[in-house]
Amino acid sequence: MEDLEETLFEEFENYSYALEYYSPEADLEEKVHLGIAHWASLVLYCLAFVLGIPGNAIVIWFTGFKWKKTVTTLWFLNLAIADFIFLLFLPLYISYVAMNFHWPFGIWLCKANSFIAQLNMFASVFFLTVISLDRYIHLIHPVLSHRNRTPRNALIVIIFVWLLASLMGSPALYFRDTLEFDNHTLCYNNFHEHDPDLIEMRHHVLTWVKVIIGYLFPLLTMSICYLCLILKVKKRSIVISSKHFWTILAVVTAFLICWTPYHLFSIWELTIHHNGSFHQVLQAGIPLSTSLAFLNSCLNPILYVLISKKFQVHFRASVAEILKNTLWEVSCSGTVSEQLRSSETKHAHLLETAQ
């Protein structure tokens, strides 16, 4: 049994680092460095949760329940839903990191948590890409946009994006597994237990699919859309606010900062199959890059919605309406209470007079 566990852990150590960093064999200096990196990533996870839950909840509340359903509000609503669902599961991963990568929640939550993370990554990136395409077509090809840009067509695109994101995240449901070792339960990618070539092939295929479809294609699409938008706006002398320009720049920059390290480390991780000298760097770098990518879930509502003048106007109006209704209810409640107290006082006074 011990030989089997050693074999499984050796395969785990050599071939599956995407979300697993537990290393019982590390020396004291390594553990100090890894501990600092892991606690730094833990802070970023907590920051993403604390900022992302209320930020995305506000977007969902207003775009889903308070405002008129338009193509733009549908994009923002589904983008916020993707980020919000992921952030609801984030405490499980925070606990995993805080407990030194011990997973006590069972195999099904291991699979579900990883699937939700992948679903969020692809759905969020795909919706950002759709928003970029929509803005380009809406401003540069207004006739085409007016003819086809309807809530019904937007719903078709939204369903397609969710199905595609689910398909891209589905390997996590199949490959994620748990392994007990050294009083730790690890949640990891079990590509195969005994065939190193099959493990390497599956790892390479899934990583490159994730990088190409979940990073390079969206980044290229967003960059081309926004670059063409800026060039054509200048060429046609179309009025565009400086705030809109900086919003576009902030969106692309945030995407680059949050996702580039994650995918670079994912590619670098593939070298583990041929060179084991980078274990320590990967064990420290992958948690940090993953937490930075997850931080994008709380930046999306800020960059795409909260800094928009139109959103701010709607937000203030909605908040003012809520406060007005609340104060009205309190006022009415207070008036009723005063009337009751006045009635009780008069009733008591009449009883005293009668006596």
UniProtKB/TrEMBL annotation:
The keyword Transmembrane helix applies. The chain crosses the membrane at residues 36-62, 74-94, 114-133, 154-175, 212-233, 245-265, 285-307. PROSITE patterns: G_PROTEIN_RECEP_F1_1, G_PROTEIN_RECEP_F1_2. One of its GO terms (molecular function) is adipokinetic hormone binding. InterPro entries: CML2, Formyl_rcpt-rel, GPCR_Rhodpsn, GPCR_Rhodpsn_7TM. GO terms for biological process: glucose homeostasis; neuropeptide signaling pathway. Keywords: Cell membrane, Disulfide bond, G-protein coupled receptor, Glycoprotein, Membrane, Receptor, Transducer, Transmembrane, Transmembrane helix. CDD domains: 7tmA_GPR1. Residues 55-304 form the G-protein coupled receptors family 1 profile domain. It is a multi-pass membrane protein. GO terms for cellular component: neuron projection; nucleoplasm; plasma membrane. It comes from the Eukaryota. It is found in: Cell membrane. Its main location: membrane. Belongs to the G-protein coupled receptor 1 family. This is Chemerin-like receptor 2. The gene is CMKLR2.
